[in-house]
Amino acid sequence: MQFVDVKADIAFKKIFGSEQHTEILIGFLNAVLELQGDRCIKSVTLKNPWQPPDIAILKETILDIRAIDNRGVTFIVEMQIKDTKSFGKRAIYYTSKAYTSQIKTGEDYPKLNQVIFIGILDFNSFEGDSYLTRHLILNRETLKQELTDLEFNFIELPKFNKREEELETIIEKWLYFLKNTDELEMIPQCAVEIPELNEAYNLAAKSAWSENELDIYDYWQIRDAEDRYKSLEDFEKGKLEGKEEGREEGREVGREEGREVGREEGREVGIEQGKIEVAHKLIAKGMSVEEAADIAGVAVENLRNG
């Protein structure tokens, strides 16, 4: 049994943003936010449900997940693979925009409902060893949360290192799914007892994907690998210039490269070959050589020679 990499944006959106499987998102949100009993989310309405995009318009594809629950609370869930220094600011911007867009000019402020942001990071961003941190607006004197409408949650996957036999809580089992699924050959026994998580594994199985969806997934993986490779080049350049920060980041990206990419896509030759394979798939579907070359980012002569 083969699985996709759930951390890939396309895979993450297909699994957690499916209108036919909203129970997966509900189960994940309840686990991350530690909601129990009457506080549990009962239902959600997806604002931008998963639709397999055309490869030619992938640059315009919206890949975060937005949903409103039965109480009117808005959730924004985003998977972020590449380390960007501005991610925190982007999280605040998206959350604030979702909050203010709930009402039009002249409408009453009481109509505004809570907005909760959940960012899943494939890099470390905050101090400390906690893989899940919750950021609230608190009164400095009393430490009470009196302004409750904005909440930010961040999951740092590199800090989560438990093996399958060590998993205890539901959130740990979800994070194991997010971090390790593409390396597994079968659904872990610990997931079978959690219906939503078990269904998430089933949707992550490549056998559940159409040929077109797998083509899109392959194309996106190539783009991610290329971005990582370019980042690694930048860090190595920093090393040669003698910058200590460049050296440390270069080592960190090198470790992440080996863990996440672990295939030839992480090297120039592998990336180019992967692009050519995607281009040939597009040609097989009836696209012209020139169009396929432009979308995949390869030279036309490389396709004709191949």
Supply database-style keywords.
306 residues, six-stranded mixed beta sheet, alpha/beta
Number of strands: 6
Measured distance between first and last alpha carbons: 31 Å
Low-pLDDT sequence parts: 231-240, 261-267
What is the helix fraction of residues, given as a range?
40-55%
The main β sheet shows up as: 6 strands, mixed
Strand line-up across the major sheet: 1-2-3-4-6-5
Radius of gyration: 21 Å
Average per-residue pLDDT, rounded, comes to 82
Order of helices and strands: HHEEEHEEEHHHHHHHH
What structural class do helix, strand and pairing data support? alpha/beta
Number of helices: 11
Number of domains: 2
Quick structural gist:
The protein is α/β, with parallel strands linked by helices. It has helices at 9-16, 22-32, 87-100, 170-180, 189-192, 195-204, 211-240, 244-261, 268-284, 289-296, 300-305, and strands at 44-46, 65-69, 74-80, 115-121, 132-137, 147-156.
Sequence-ordered SSE layout with sheet pairings:
Layout: H1 9-16, H2 22-32, E1 44-46, E2 65-69, E3 74-80, H3 87-100, E4 115-121, E5 132-137, E6 147-156, H4 170-180, H5 189-192, H6 195-204, H7 211-240, H8 244-261, H9 268-284, H10 289-296, H11 300-305
Helix pairs in contact: 2-6, 7-8, 7-9, 9-10
Description:
This protein is α/β, with parallel strands linked by helices. Helices cover 45% and strands 12% of the residues. It contains eleven helices and six strands. It has a six-stranded mixed beta sheet with strand order 1-2-3-4-6-5, with helices on both faces. Helix 3 (87-100) links the parallel strand 3 (74-80) and strand 4 (115-121). It is globular. Residues 231-240 and 261-267 have low confidence and may be disordered.
